[in-house]
Write a structure and sequence with these properties.
Largest sheet: 6 strands, antiparallel
Radius of gyration: 39 Å
Number of helices: 18
Helix content: 55-70%
Strand content: 5-15%
């Protein structure tokens, strides 16, 4: 486990280093002036009330209200005449000298398109002075509580506004790295699945990280560094928001090994999120006068909260079934989420301004929440894959030990019974050769077991070479007995010829006596009722007849080996 964690930590350091390098070599200074300190705010509630704020932080207004930001322009904006700002789900108008110079959202709302997060670059007259007014007409309750990072930028670099600061460049780089990693793992796990591996959980994990990252890019408006399409981007953002819990539920479902209450709930959650996504999407596409994603957003948020609580309870209740990465990653994610809640509360109550905690105005912890949770899920499944790989290697080792003979390297009798018997029991024709290495006992008694083992290795190598060249299957059946089998009699005969030819070529430098093997070949005809055991018995008898015929019976071979041993000793 320590080695695994060390590798994970090393990967984490590499990713962080890559982000730092990307940020440091990126466009750090696109130019421009931040004008947040030049903004005053007036909130006109639809009920007729009005509130004034001397800054850009204000009480969140209700749906239908108008928020007007007044910006005092610097004395000279000749080189910075593009007004850049972000918004969420509002109809927008920008006025200069009581004339509307920019509008957004009216047509989209009429057509039923999403407004969602949007990025705006408004060209001002190069000699503009005085004040510019931005009006937000609220399309949703309590969504706007600040407008930050408002900039005047040169026209040549205004397209870089979403990543105008080093901090936003770091966030953008991290998200791009995460989404690339997710696509790579998605391809990898999909290939594994097509090859027969159980990687559905990995596919769900990758899709979850992709959808969550796309949503986070939209939520932080960093996605506008890739595209300026204010209609497609919100659609992808909301679709990703509805899809992320679906893929997470599937991930958690396949992560539970045993059937039980938790797994049943994860199944129900996945079905619920699947249905919710399609209802919202069909509503969005086919009822254009109503914004389906927005209309069902409260249900989506509530179900997300309930689902998150259940996941946390499940992990705590079954902590022994989850990795350390998953458990501590969830804790980290919760801590960062709590920090984000505190940040939002400080913004909405004005405490960040009162105590000059400007970092809470400019910094959002959402990217950290997203990346902490994604990193948790990624590493959790990576560890599972690693352990599964290790288990597979161990299983292969045990399989090798169970099915292969350690001395000769041929498959053993267990493998024959497991692999051949079920095949040879049918009505099809096949040929089987029963082979006996001549003189094993004499070699052991006279020259020792090392020589006997070498005898078996030489015979088995000859059998293997003959079988491989002629598409036959070979086994060490036990002791000095071997079996070669194939559906073709000709192939078995050729394998035996190859074996004998190789044994005949074995010279005295390898063994102190001639190496031979006796063979009994039996052919089973198609639809013949003879059993495999009867065929082996018949082949054994035929093999003994071959011994007698070639004078390779035990007595003859023992006498020959003893004679050779005596000659060798006399020569010495």
């Amino acid at each position: 486990m320590k080695k695994i964690l060390a590798k994970i930590f090393a990967i984490f350091l590499i990713v962080i280093t890559a982000v730092v390098l990307i940020a440091s070599t990126g466009i750090k200074k696109p130019g421009g002036i931040v004008v947040d300190d030049r903004i005053t705010t007036d909130v006109y509630e639809y009920r007729g009330t009005r509130e004034h704020f001397d800054n850009n932080v204000f009480t969140p207004p209700s749906k239908g209200s108008n928020v007007i930001f007044t910006i005092d322009l610097p004395d000279d904006i000749e080189d910075n005449n593009v007004l850049c700002f972000f918004n969420y789900n509002s109809i927008i108008t920008v006025s200069y000298e009581n004339k509307i110079i920019y509008e957004f959202g009216q047509d989209n709302v009429k057509k039923g398109y999403l407004t969602g997060h949007s990025c705006h670059r408004v060209i001002l007259p190069s000699d503009a002075t005085g004040q510019v007014k931005i009006k937000f007409h609220q399309l949703e309750n309590y969504t706007t509580s600040q407008i930050t990072g408002v900039m005047l930028m040169p026209a040549s670099t205004a397209w870089l506004y979403p990543i105008a600061t080093p901090w936003r460049q770091v966030q953008f780089s991290l998200f791009i790295i995460f989404i690339l990693l997710s696509f790579i793992t998605l391809v990898f796990y999909t290939i594994m699945w097509f090859k027969g591996y159980d990687s559905v959980q990995g596919i769900a994990e990758s899709l979850f990280c992709i959808s969550l990252t796309i949503w986070a890019l939209g939520f932080t408006s960093l996605i506008f560094a890739l595209s300026d399409d204010n209609s497609i981007i919100p659609f992808s953002e909301y679709a990703s928001l509805y899809l992320a819990p679906l893929f997470l539920s599937i991930y958690m479902y396949f992560g539970r090994k045993k059937e039980g209450f938790d797994k049943m709930v994860f199944r129900i959650m996945a079905i619920f999120y699947f249905v919710l996504f399609w209802i919202a999407t069909l509503w969005q596409l086919f009822i254009p006068t109503h914004d389906g994603y927005i209309e069902l957003l409260n249900i989506c948020h509530t179900s997300l909260l309930v689902g998150a609580v259940f996941i946390i309870i499940s992990i705590i209740k079954n902590k022994h079934e989850y990795s350390l990465i998953m458990r501590y990653g969830i804790i980290l994610t919760l801590l960062v989420s709590l920090t984000e809640v505190v940040r939002v509360l400080m913004l909405r109550t004005g405490l960040s301004k009162k105590f000059s905690l400007y970092v809470f105005t400019e910094l959002t912890f959402t990217p950290f929440i997203v990346m902490a949770f994604e990193l948790t899920v990624m590493l959790d499944y990576a560890i599972k894959v690693y352990k599964s790989y290790q288990d597979r290697i161990e299983a292969e080792k045990f399989k090798t030990l169970a099915y292969f003979d350690g001395l000769t390297g041929l498959k053993n009798r267990t493998a024959f019974d497991k692999m051949e018997r079920p095949v040879l029991q049918n009505d099809e024709a096949y040929s089987l050769a029963f082979i006996d290495a001549d003189g094993l006992k004499a070699a052991n008694d006279i020259y020792g077991h090392e020589t006997g083992d070498e005898l078996l290795r030489i015979v088995s190598n000859a059998i293997r070479d003959g079988s491989d060249k002629n598409a036959c299957r070979s086994y060490r059946y036990g002791g000095d007995e071997f079996i070669v089998v194939s559906e073709s009699k000709e192939q078995v005969e050729n394998a035996i010829k190859e074996m004998r030819s190789k044994l005949k070529a074995t010279d005295d430098y390898e063994m102190p006596f001639e190496i031979t093997a006796s063979v009994g070949l039996v052919v089973r005809n198609e639809k013949e009722k003879t059993t495999i055991d009867e065929i082996i018995k018949a082949a054994d008898s035929a093999m003994y007849e071959d011994k007698v015929k070639n004078k390779r019976t035990r007595e003859n071979v023992v006498a020959e080996i003893k004679k050779r041993a005596q000659v060798s000793e006399a020569g010495v």
